[in-house]
Design goal:
The chain is α/β, with parallel strands linked by helices. It has 10 helices and 16 strands. Helix 7 links the parallel strand 12 and strand 13. The N and C termini lie close together (9 Å). The C terminus is likely disordered.
Length: 344
């Protein structure tokens, strides 16, 4: 079978490897749509720790091809999405209800083979059936949706309250749709790129702003009557964005850090400001126990409002470049496109 593999030292290639074997509790999948995201770029650039060689891709929707002898949760031919995390189950975090904080966590597409391949094997516990009629490319967005759901859980935002979101990429768009479903408003989304602001508008943002505009501070003051926002989300992963998010939060406001920053990045904040205004800075990571909820939400999010572009495995390099350039709202690789793969 063919697979897009990262070999370390910034090297990615399309390789021929053996179809993986299926154990009693395993599921053999034929990935139909795999999202390309910034994490993939960070891995290739060497900014995120990974365990090469491995197939890239952790945003996965796939068709069940074969099931192990003890599998009863999914059936052959069913479309599933993959929850891309395996935990040790024995560490302090696993045994006290914080699986996603497991220091030995392994993720397909990061530490293990991911979805950019004609076939993939995962334990049956990671395969979630999706509603009939959901397109594969939308099902592939379950993982980022689940991360957004967890982030909003952390924020504990109340309906009827305004929220500001920095970043209008796919994550910002999903957050916007979820915020609207949750009854938050007005939803203000900020991004320096006009195309991204357009995406946020398509997903229901009440107002979009350019944070680099000379009138940005005045615009924010006008929206909030000078009070600031009770909820602010950094969906970018930028120290400067977090600093700005803190500055526009209201007293007793909450700031959620959802964007994935470079591990070496640092920011400058005033402890006295956080103390005096009783601000709350929240981290949010991964998708603990939210993948099923994300699957259930797919039909309600209007994901067809995204300008998605699909690439075959052969065109993986073009797909990676399109993701970096932000040419499309969402870039996906379709491993079954361009020829029918057959399991050995």
């Amino acid at each position: 079978m063919r697979t897009v593999r990262y070999h370390g030292d910034h090297v990615v290639s399309l390789d021929d490897v053996s179809v993986p074997t299926v154990g009693p509790r395993d599921v053999l999948l034929a990935p139909e749509a795999v999202g390309v995201c910034a994490t993939d770029t960070h891995i290739i650039e060497g900014h995120f720790m990974s365990r090469p060689p491995m197939a890239l891709g952790h945003e996965i929707a796939a068709r069940v091809v074969r099931v192990g002898s003890e599998v009863t949760s999914v059936q052959i031919g069913q479309l599933v999405t993959v929850e891309p995390h395996l935990y040790c189950g024995t560490c302090f975090n696993c045994q006290t209800g914080s699986l996603h904080m497991c220091p030995s966590r392994r993720a397909p597409g990061v530490h293990l083979d991911g979805g950019m391949a004609e076939f993939l094997v995962v334990p049956d516990t990671l395969a979630y059936a999706v509603p009939v009629g959901v397109p594969a490319w939308q099902a592939a967005l379950t993982e980022p949706i689940a991360c957004c759901v967890h982030g909003l859980d952390r924020l504990e935002a109340k309906s009827g309250m305004p929220i500001a979101i920095f970043g209008a990429g796919p994550i910002g768009a999903i957050l916007t749709a979820l915020a609207k479903l949750q009854g938050l408003g007005p939803v203000i989304v900020m991004d320096p790129r006009e195309s991204r602001r357009d995406l946020a508008s398509r997903f229901g943002a009440d107002l979009t702003l350019d944070p680099t505009s000379a009138t940005f501070e005045d615009d924010i003051a006008a929206v909030t009557d000078g009070v600031g926002f009770p909820y602010v989300i950094d969906a970018v992963g930028s120290p400067r964005v977090v600093e700005t998010a803190v500055s526009i939060a209201c007293r007793a406001g909450k700031i959620l850090l959802l964007g994935v920053a470079d591990p070496s990045a640092r920011m400058s904040l005033s402890p006295n400001d956080i103390y005096a205004r009783e601000l709350t800075l929240l981290g949010t990571a991964l998708n603990p126990y939210t993948h099923r909820r994300a699957v259930n939400l797919i039909p309600s999010l209007g994901l067809d409002r995204m300008n998605a572009r699909f690439f075959a495995l052969d065109d993986f390099q073009a797909a990676l470049e399109a993701q970096v350039n932000g040419t499309f709202d969402k870039v996906l690789i379709m491993p079954q496109q361009g020829g029918k793969a057959v399991a050995a």
